[in-house]
Amino acid sequence: MTTDIQGSGTYRISRVIGNNFVCAVDETGREVILRGLGIGFKKKPGDLVPGRQIEKIYALRDPEQSSRLQQLLADVPPEFLEVSTEIIEMAEQRIGRRLSENVYITLTDHISFAVERLRGGVEYPNHLLWEITNFYPAEFAVGLQALDIISERLGYRLPRDEAGFIALHIVNAEIDGKMADMVRITEMIRKIVSEVQAYYDVALDEQSLDYGRFLTHLKFLGQRITQNKYAPDDDSEFQNMIVRRYQHDYHCAERIRAALSEAFDIQLPPEEMTFLTIHLHRLALSMGATNPKE
Fold first, then answer.
1. pLDDT tens digits, 47-56
2. How far apart are CA 157 and CA 114, in angstroms?
């Protein structure tokens, strides 16, 4: 969503948000939010913004999201968006993935609310902190660094639980989902990992590459489940071959399917069972689990 600008384009201010933020209209009539040092100081609607003053352009493709961001900036100090932008750009660099533009809204709102709770002495424990630190280690590392950024830029030291909440926002932006779904996805991953450990009777190496790949698969499996967007079920021959070749691992997948059905009323389709079996087989090999516990 954000784009660096080096003195190009013409923008006319439609609304001043603060000294460093303004709403403006570009040459095509598209409304954007501009950030730049002193860009809104003593400015009024209709004034032009020199391109050399623009540091960032917030150009959301969805008009509804653009409106939401403007409304949010009317309610919270602009520096919260600045901090969120710094965290998001750091996250994209560390994780190596572009995040959904909606995260600029959700993360800014969350940080503002977290600071408000801290000021009021209200504690909000993160009951999924263990799962977040173990299932999303890269995103949790981003969350921890985000706490440092918030402390340095805003002067508030948020508790470690907030690193977990920020991590969930980052994961959610990776899969372009909804925050309410992330809690459910995390609980599903916890259930699946528990079933895998019980079935193979081997401790999972949380630092291994195969474990990380398995968690990535589960994260996007959760996305497909919550969005009900599965791959077409059109390769029955391949599915049958996987079932025959990896019978023990498919049995584990069947247990997982039964557990998800009971706990979450989810029915995994055949194509998801196939890919889950393949990931289970790779994970089992990396753990040396050649004789699973029946």
1. 998 888 888 8
2. 10
